[in-house]
Design a protein that fits this description.
Helix content is 38%, strand content 22%. The chain is an alpha/beta fold and 502 residues long. It folds into two domains: 11-253 and 460-481, Aldehyde Dehydrogenase, Chain A, domain 1, CATH 3.40.605; 257-441, Aldehyde Dehydrogenase, Chain A, domain 2 (3-Layer(aba) Sandwich), CATH 3.40.309.10. The N and C termini lie far apart (72 Å). It binds nicotinamide-adenine-dinucleotide.
């Protein structure tokens, strides 16, 4: 489909915008108005070939650039990113719908990964052992892989790509980003910023597209590694496809994050946290809290506090300073979330706050849904079992700490989890027993800092490596160990025995 009256958001290949050769396009919509604002090309396999070929050529030179020069480009990128953060945040709000303050926050968290990657000379330092045998030394190095690919979701169009590519590039790789086709502008702005920062052409590329581009990237012979973030079914597909083709893969999937509230918790703090983490970004966060587990006897009290706060939230255009929560990403997704709400009612949960049919003045065609709160949700219900990815918070009642923990550990996802308590002993027991990759103690969205690694367990991660931090450096490099001997007269003459220490 082409819409000639709106601009096209192109690919970025070889250091410049590129229209590609594909004849397929997708509309890019402003979710607050419902209007199509642009179109985006959906790359063909041939377009992917061009981007990867240029990236491969750029890699051959970039891998030889000294560590200090690479780090200087990272520092320069950090400066450009900071200067252009408002522009980037507004582009995110225009296509995603989240409120501008939230978009600024996502860029800030992404920038922290750039700051981490600025330390690449030290991060890549190997180990050296002198005299491992007489006259023999050994040392380890980590070297880049080649062309690394990032495939990213709509919900963090700047932060999730920034989890990946600053580390990959700092390690000496070239990087091809395939962002979500629903909000593709942020990727293009990041590409412009790299060019402004002096990154050589071809080291960072953007291929716009959908499943066709993803599948072509996953099997391309010149792609060495694939980083994916998105829903669980696609994460599994990407993991299986790319590993079968011999790639190194980290594929982060969906989530169903629980927040357990123990009876001794400060209920006002817990209610504030549940509302912020449940409805921030309209619930379209992989670290959103979607289930609150209220441990007896505080359930009624907690639900009342959460309901009062949720009912007061302002839903509106993300550009309005007064809005707490923006629209959902598409009309189809809003309809799907409403469908889940109807299923919850049908299956017997108590809908104590109904956000359906929300009207936003002057924005009749936006994809609106107000906060929805369910109480007395049972684990067998669809709204408990499936990831909804919208402003729907489910409260489950549990009779004890043990029952609450069992509920979390039996859930197939294992992304984030939080405990609210004043009891240090309970908190310590919880962080040891709970089965999830990221744990918050009185912190509802425990997103690790850039120098730690981000990732879940279970169906929230395929592969064994988390994003950024030390695991990111490890993912984008491969190890090599050198053993060297120089002019040791004692070694002269053939020796067919297996090398042993002398
Ligand atoms: P998605 O899985 O639909 O899309 C992610 C990427 O995969 C996009 O680039 C998309 O173009 C591509 N894609 C979509 N369908 C495909 C197919 N059939 N074959 C190949 N590629 C395909 O996810 P989304 O709707 O953009 O994002 C929301 C999801 O991402 C949620 O499930 C959320 O939990 C998850 N998410 C997870 C994390 C995490 O860290 N675990 C972070 C952010 C988002």
């Amino acid at each position: 489909m082409t819409t000639p009256s709106v601009p096209t958001i192109p690919h970025w290949v070889d250091g410049k915008r590129w229209e590609g050769t594909s004849t397929r396009f997708a509309p890019v919509t402003n979710p607050a108005t419902g209007a199509v604002a642009a179109t985006v090309p959906l790359a063909s396999g041939a377009d992917v070939d061009v981007a990867v070929e240029r990236a491969r050529a750029a890699y051959e030179e970039w891998r030889d650039v000294s560590l200090n020069r690479r780090a200087r480009v990272l520092f320069a990128f950090r400066e450009v990113l900071e200067a252009r953060t408002p522009e980037l945040a507004h582009a995110i709000t225009a296509e995603h719908g989240k409120v501008v303050a939230d978009a600024l926050g996502e860029v800030a968290r992404g920038a922290e990964v750039v700051e981490f990657a600025c330390g690449i000379p030290l991060l890549l330092a190997g180990r050296h052992s002198e005299q491992v045998s007489t006259g023999v030394d050994t040392w380890s190095v980590r070297q880049p892989l080649g062309v690394a690919v990032g495939i990213t979701p709509f919900n963090f169009p700047a932060m999730v790509p920034l989890w990946m590519h600053p580390v990959a590039i700092a390690c000496g790789n070239a990087f091809v980003l395939k962002p979500s086709e629903r909000d593709p502008s942020a990727a293009l702005l990041l590409a412009e910023m790299w060019a402004e920062a002096g990154l050589p052409e071809g080291v960072f590329s953007v291929v716009q597209g959908d499943a066709e581009a993803v599948n072509a990237l996953c099997i391309h012979p010149d792609v060495a590694a694939v980083s994916f973030v998105g829903s669980t079914p696609i994460a599994r597909h990407v993991y299986e496809t790319a590993t079968r083709a011999g790639k190194r893969v980290q594929a982060l999937g969906g989530a169903k994050n629980h927040m357990i509230v123990l009876p001794d918790a400060d209920l006002d703090i817990a209610a504030d946290a549940a509302v912020s983490a449940g409805y921030g970004s309209a619930g379209e966060r992989c670290m959103a809290i979607s289930v609150v587990v209220a441990v007896d006897p505080i359930g009624d009290d907690l639900v009342e506090r959460v309901r009062d706060r949720s009912a007061a939230l302002a839903v509106g255009d993300g550009n309005d300073a007064g809005s707490d929560m923006g629209p959902l990403i598409t009309a189809a997704h809003r309809d799907l979330v409403e469908h889940y709400v109807a299923a919850g009612v049908e299956e017997g949960a108590d809908l104590v706050l109904d956000g359906r049919n929300r009207v936003v003045a002057g924005r009749a065609d936006g994809f609106w849904l107000g906060p929805c709160l369910f109480d007395h949700v049972q684990p067998r219900m669809t709204i408990y079992r499936e990831e909804i990815f919208g402003p729907v918070l489910c409260v489950v009642r549990a009779s004890s700490y043990e029952e609450a923990v069992r509920l979390v550990n039996e859930n197939p996802y294992g992304n984030g989890v939080a405990l609210f308590t004043r009891d240090g002993g309970a908190a310590r027991r919880f962080e040891r027993e709970i089965e999830a990759g990221m744990v918050g103690i009185n912190v509802p969205i425990p997103v690790p800092m850039a120098y730690y690694s981000f990732g879940g367990w279970g169906q929230s991660l395929f592969g064994d490596t988390h994003m950024h931090g030390a695991e990111g450096v490890h993912f984008y490099t491969r190890g090599k160990v050198v053993t060297a001997r120089w002019s040791d007269p004692a070694t002269r003459g053939p020796d067919l025995g297996f090398p042993t220490n002398r």
